[in-house]
Amino acid sequence: MLDIILKGGITMPFILLCSLIAAIIIVERLLFFRRIRVDEGKMINRLRATLEKKHFDEAISICENNPSPITNLMKVGIEHRRYNERVLKDSIMDAANLEIPKLERFLSALGTIANIAPLLGLLGTVIGNIEAFGVLGNLESVGDPGQLANGISEALISTAAGIVVSIPALIFYNYLVSKVNHIIIRLENKVNDLVLLLGGGE
To answer: Which of 11, 71, 86, 158 is the most exposed place for a label (fewest CB within 10 A)?
Structure first.
């Protein structure tokens, strides 16, 4: 493995760095989405029962102990329950807009890695081929095509490495972007429901 890396050329360290960063981002995002996953229906029913009893501090505590985009919106709504419906809705919408950067964190970096990894591999191959074909300028090496073929083979390692890094990065990027978009749509649809739920506050 180390031998392949060493043969991959000057761009291999950068490709390996991209793979490490991509892996860290993917794991971090998957753990994040797992952490914020809650059963929204049960959570809202639980909060509704608490709010009907006017136990607002308890409702805020429930939101804080079950962090997720929807409970963060609920917490803001509960804290603004005394205001009119327009202010209440605006405060919940503002909270929803603040959730979006949290959901999209690091995704642009992952997308960038998915795009530049194969380019780094291609650059490594071009550099390697330039060096390999340089043997043709050496009269002593012209009669040894095996040396030229070996040089080209080693040059192609970086392209393969770039593609190997790019494919999973692109797959997870598309998956995570799709997940974020679904959450954002859900949040937008829940705003009016939350306003109606909290409209009967003090």
So the answer is: 86
Residue labelled with tokens 């060096």:
131
Let me know the angle formed at the C-alpha of 106 by 185 and 158, rounded to the nearest 5 degrees: 125
The domain spans of the chain are: 2-198
Mean pLDDT in residue range 38-46: 78
Rounded to the nearest angstrom, the gap between the alpha carbon of residue 131 and the centroid of all alpha carbons in its chain is 38
The reported pTM is: 0.79
Does position 201 have pLDDT exceeding 60, yes or no? no
Q: Is the dihedral of CA 21, 98, 49, 193 positive or negative?
A: negative
Q: Enter the tokens of residue 105.
A: 């964190």
For residue 123, give both structure tokens.
Answer: 């650059």
Of the ranges 104-118, 124-138, 141-155, which one carries the lowest mean pLDDT score? Answer: 141-155
Both tokens of residue 180?
A: 């974020």
